[in-house]
UniProtKB/TrEMBL annotation:
It comes from Microlunatus antarcticus. Residues 29-157, 165-283 form the DUF4438 domain. This is DUF4438 domain-containing protein.
């Protein structure tokens, strides 16, 4: 992206975490939007589905967390991991069969989510320790003071198309334009923590619930209308937020594939371009061994 920033003045920290187990309780069942009970995998552990560029919906899953689900056992250290890890940061396994291999942070949910090549994921397991090269919080765009940048590695920013236009607006490319009424779980939370769930992508359920979002892919950049994520998340007419889809299929009502916040500000500060190729898979380096093929 052709835009001036303060990237040269940002601090890099090495943060610790570990692959966290999937958890459940003795009640087992939850219910979907039509009242149907389900027991499905999704959160925690190592998930071998949903690489960058692959479909976010259609899986037999609830709150699909692709790749490695990473957190820290100490609550304070875990908040630091959540708040400081940025989309595009390198994550290196430092124990287990995949020690020395790397992946890329694709966003936050209940955990920091890390995509990696299949062989890296196959060699990883619960309890493996990781190091996150946290870099990006505090990123600011010099010519766009109204635009707040969140959770974004400057290297990803540089790889994105768009930038400062002659009229002074920030051009951003997104794959999907999301209506304000899709905003689900995540409202009211800090935009550096977890993500926002998008309703209206309940594949296989009542068609009246659809908002046309069943085609979302993991890593898609999306624009959320009338939404402000500058200081938390909420409805604000005339504002917009751009994020990247970091979680997938949800069966629980009020939830859905979730974007991690990248940009937010008044709508007049942006020039939004609809671009089917606007996916994080195009903006992260091959050296991180992230699978970027888009399924046909």
């Amino acid at each position: 992206m052709k835009v001036e920033s303060n990237a040269g003045r940002l601090v890099t920290q090495l943060l610790a975490g570990e692959v966290w187990p999937a958890t459940a309780d003795r009640h087992a069942y939850r219910v979907d939007a039509d009242g149907g009970p389900f027991v499905l995998p999704g959160m925690g552990g190592v998930t071998l589905a949903g690489h960058l560029g692959e479909p976010a919906t259609g899986w037999a899953s609830d709150h699909l967390e692709p790749g490695l689900s990473v957190r820290h056992a100490d609550p304070g250290a875990n908040y630091a991991l959540q708040n400081l890890t940025c989309v595009g940061n390198e994550v290196t396994l430092v124990s287990g069969a995949s020690a020395g291999e790397s992946g890329v942070a694709i966003g936050q949910h209940a955990y920091v989510l890390v995509d990696a090549a299949d062989d890296v994921l196959e060699g990883a397991t619960v309890g493996d320790r990781v190091t996150v090269r946290a870099h990006g919080q505090g990123l600011a765009l010099k010519a766009h003071p109204q635009v707040r940048v969140k959770n974004l590695d400057p290297a990803v920013l540089d790889a994105m198309p768009g930038g400062t236009r002659p009229d002074g607006r920030l051009e951003v490319h997104v794959a999907v334009d999301v209506p304000a009424d899709a905003a689900g779980a995540g409202g009211g939370m800090a935009s550096e923590f977890a993500n926002t769930d998008l309703m209206g992508a309940y594949a296989g359920l009542d068609a009246s619930l659809s908002l046309g979002l069943e085609g979302l892919r993991i890593g898609d950049l999306v624009v959320m209308r009338d939404t402000d994520h500058s200081w938390g998340r909420g409805y604000r007419p005339g504002w917009l937020t751009v994020g990247t889809i970091s979680t997938g299929q949800c069966a629980l009502f009020g939830h859905g594939p979730g974007p991690t916040t990248l940009f937010s500000g008044p709508a007049e500060a942006f020039h939004v371009v609809i671009d089917a190729d606007a996916n994080l898979s195009a903006y992260v380096g091959e050296s991180r061994r992230v699978r970027t093929e888009v399924l046909a």
